[in-house]
Structures are given as structure tokens and as C-alpha cells.
Amino acid sequence: MPPVCAAEREALRESIREHGIVVPIIKDQDGNVLDGYNRIDLAAELGVEVPEVVHTCEPQDREVLRIELNGAPRQIGDKDWKKLVDHLRAQVTGDGVRCFSDRVIARAVGIDRESPSVQAR
């Protein structure tokens, strides 16, 4: 994921300072962070407790979940979306088979075949 801009990071810092962490971070059953890297970083900086939720998932689903969870709330430009899509398309098994179908990738980045943004890209 592209880093949040300085203004967004500062706004998040101020929110955490004032309210604590309202939305828990999400980890998988193995402790891998799926959503919440910025909250973890800023909470450590501010000395704030970090609530977390564990979501059980298959290891091969982590990348799609990270993009779904992190991309949805952000405004990400076409150039950055392309990098995310290319990253998912590059994930292959030991046999060279793609791990994610185009349908799964489209869902991860929040588009489908009927979306006007798909036809414009």
C-alpha cells in the first residue's frame, strides 16, 4: 500500500491522541497484521494501548485481505491501484499458477465488471 500522506498521518495522530484507537487493528491467526500498520506505529509513539481483532484466514488470502481492508477507506490514484493489481497478479504458486483470479483481484480493489471505472481504465 502506498504510505498515507503527511496530513492524513497527522490527523490520525491527533485522533489517537484525543480518543485512543477506536478501530482495532486486524491480525490473522499467526499474528500477521492485515490492517492497522499506521495505528500501531502511532500508538507506540504516543504510548497508547492497541486493541486488536484476530481474523482467521488462509495464508494465501492475506494479500487480498490487506488490499481490501486498507484500500477501501483511502483515495488511491490509478497508478497506485495498478501497482496493487500487478502485485496480486504476480503472486504464483510453486507450479507457476496465479494465486488470484481477476475476479478476486477486482473484488479486492473494489471494482467489478459493471463499474464505470473499469471501463474507463
Task: Give the arrangement of secondary structure elements.
Elements: H1 6-19, E1 25-28, E2 33-35, H2 37-46, E3 52-55, H3 62-71, H4 78-90, H5 102-108, H6 116-120
Parallel strand pairs: 1-3
Antiparallel strand pairs: 1-2
Explain what this protein looks like in three dimensions.
The chain has 121 residues and is mainly alpha-helical. 49% of the residues lie in helices and 9% in strands.
N-end to C-end Cα span? 20 Å
Please report the number of helical segments.
6
Helix content: 40-55%
Shape: globular
Give me the Rg, rounded: 16 Å
Q: For the largest sheet, list the strands in their spatial order.
A: 2-1-3
- Proportion of strand residues: 5-15%
Low-confidence stretches: 116-121
Sheet/helix structural class = mainly alpha
Mean pLDDT: 80
What can be said about the biggest beta sheet?
A: 3 strands, mixed
Please write the string of helix (H) and strand (E) elements: HEEHEHHHH
Count of β-strands: 3
Give a concise summary.
This protein has 121 residues and is mainly α. It is 49% helix and 9% strand.
Key terms for this structure?
121 residues, mainly alpha, 3-stranded mixed sheet, 6 helices
